[in-house]
């Protein structure tokens, strides 16, 4: 009888370990507002998760996800839109060098070439942003590179558009962030019974 109880306790412990590992490896809960699809849930192998901070806030709401176009000039969304009121500080997500800080088509844009990401390097872009950095300046993760402009956004609510590309190829900027930065809630253990 005692052996049966030991087997049951061991089986429960094994089940607890399996459930815990499965919970830790499960994808994080959705970050996206209704109607904000994420076309590429798995980051491409060429995009390392080197981001150390969100561009705005600590866990901003994604108003519109990344949706790559079917063709070079086809419809799509070549970045993600993050909710951020005008005046919100915009931060570099990773170490790099400012490739551009200025206006494009009436919008303030800051582009950062990310250090150690190959040739051509990965480049993040942020708009609409009033830059507080200059071209050629080195930036560190979390360093303020500007503030969200009051005008120039293509969002219906205030937002910053965050993009990522290597050369002419666009990628999902969320793939720069490690899972622990994407996770919205605390880890939860399921009951044994």
From TrEMBL:
<dbReference type="InterPro" id="IPR011055">
    <property type="entry name" value="Dup_hybrid_motif"/>
</dbReference>
<protein>
    <submittedName>
        <fullName>M23 family metallopeptidase</fullName>
        <ecNumber>3.4.24.-</ecNumber>
    </submittedName>
</protein>
<dbReference type="InterPro" id="IPR016047">
    <property type="entry name" value="M23ase_b-sheet_dom"/>
</dbReference>
<feature type="signal peptide">
    <location>
        <begin position="1"/>
        <end position="33"/>
    </location>
</feature>
<dbReference type="GO" id="GO:0016787">
    <property type="term" value="F:hydrolase activity"/>
</dbReference>
<keyword id="KW-0732">Signal</keyword>
<dbReference type="Pfam" id="PF01551">
    <property type="entry name" value="Peptidase_M23"/>
</dbReference>
<keyword id="KW-0378">Hydrolase</keyword>
<feature type="domain" description="M23ase beta-sheet core">
    <location>
        <begin position="76"/>
        <end position="173"/>
    </location>
</feature>
<dbReference type="InterPro" id="IPR050570">
    <property type="entry name" value="Cell_wall_metabolism_enzyme"/>
</dbReference>
